[in-house]
Amino acid sequence: MTDIVLQNAAEQIENLLKAGEGKNIPKVKEFFDPETYTYSYIVHDDATKCAAIIDSVLDYDPASGRTSFYSADKIINYVQQQGLEIKWLLETHAHADHLSAAPYLQEKLGGKIAIGEHIVAVQHVFGNLFNAGTEFRRDGSDFDHLFADGDTFKIGNLDVMVMHVPGHTPACIAYIIGDAIFIGDTMFMPDYGSARADFPGGDARQLYKSMRRILSLPPESRLFMCHDYLPEGRSEYKWQTTISEQRKGNIHAHDGISEDEFVEMRTERDKMLNMPRLILPSIQVNMRAGHLPPKEDNGVRYLKIPLDAV
Ligand SMILES: [Fe+2]
Q1: Which of 98, 107, 228, 276 is within CB 3.0–4.6 Å of 36 for a Cys-Cys bond?
Q2: Ligand 1 mean position to 279 CA, how many Å?
Q3: Separation of CA 93 and ligand 1 centre (Å)
Q4: Domain limits of the chain?
């Protein structure tokens, strides 16, 4: 199944690039949140104005517990200016560093909230960690749609293919939209390397395999990052690269690095990383597709902080 999907994806992109008519070349607009170093995207088909929003951010101040909509409203403004029709609110995975604004954007713009089908495993792990009540069903039904490896769909005239790329989390997926690939937290820019693989269900060996799958797609494909952390030696944030640049220069995953070398590097590096600042707020919201926990009987919503459990 996996090899067939990969072959289909490679062929699909190859054909699109050969066609060269621009019909399957999406317009991509990036939005950067400097608080969490996250890139969100609007991808649209110029012919039909149909669009998807990928990995949106709900602003959250942990000191006051206040949510706000500065980042999401920038997306809404762009959608309105361009006259776009939002069909999908896509998540590459359950993020551990920012809250998703998908429900807010859905209320304002419409569209279906979707993620990879293995989110169910993530919901079980974190539903238990946060001791969520039975209202949290852990069956993926908080999302409007769950994608499996190899699923295809359309955004207007654009062809989209889904690729399961586990490793950073078990549920990570990449969206191949025409020649543009949204890879979530698998790889980062070539000078920053790869994502951590030490979250529950993460696996450095799987991450290596997922990266190689992505890197075997056509070399001209555009790759869009979910984060940039401005590594030493660079003064400007970047969000876009290509397969060929990653194969040549990714410091963790360029051609020639073996699976064992990668796993050893990744495992050592992960031991030195701190937990992301917003991991506890993020996962208990994102496991619910970005919906906040239900109100308690005083009308207030609460986030939980498990002590000595993570
Ligand atoms: Fe992530």
Answers
A1: 98
A2: 10
A3: 7
A4: 2-286
Q: Tell me which residues have their CB within 5 A of the ion that is ligand 1.
A: 95, 185
111 CA distance to ligand 1 centroid (A)?
23
CA of 51 to the centre of ligand 1 (A): 23
CA of 84 to the centre of ligand 1 (A): 27
Measured CA to CA, the distance from residue 281 to residue 310 in angstroms comes to: 13
Q: Give residue-wise pLDDT tens across range 7-45.
A: 667 776 666 555 545 568 999 999 999 999 999 999 999
Average of per-residue pLDDT across 106-130: 97
DSSP-H helix ranges across the chain: 2-19, 70-82, 102-109, 119-129, 204-215, 243-249, 259-271, 279-286
Work out the pLDDT band at 134, boundaries 50, 70, 90: confident
What contacts 67, CB < 8 A, 6 or more positions away? 58, 59, 60, 99, 292
Give CATH superfamily name and number for 2-286.
Answer: Ribonuclease Z/Hydroxyacylglutathione hydrolase-like (3.60.15.10)
Is the pLDDT assigned to residue 256 strictly greater than 80?
yes
Q: Which of 198, 202, 253, 196 is nearest to 227 (CA)?
A: 196
State residue 20's pLDDT score. 47
- What's the pLDDT tens digit per position in 146-190? 999 999 999 999 999 999 999 999 999 999 999 999 999 999 999
The single residue listed with the structure tokens 């590097």 is: 265
Task: Using the mean position of ligand 1's atoms as its centre, give its distance from the Cα of residue 253 in Å.
Answer: 18
Average pLDDT of the chain, as a whole number:
94
Give pLDDT, residue 114.
98
- Helix, strand, coil share of the chain (percent; to 5): 30, 25, 50
In angstroms, what is the span from residue 95 Cα to ligand 1's centroid? Answer: 4
> Measured in angstroms, how far is the CA atom of residue 94 from the centroid of ligand 1?
7
Distance 286 CA to ligand 1 centre (A): 11
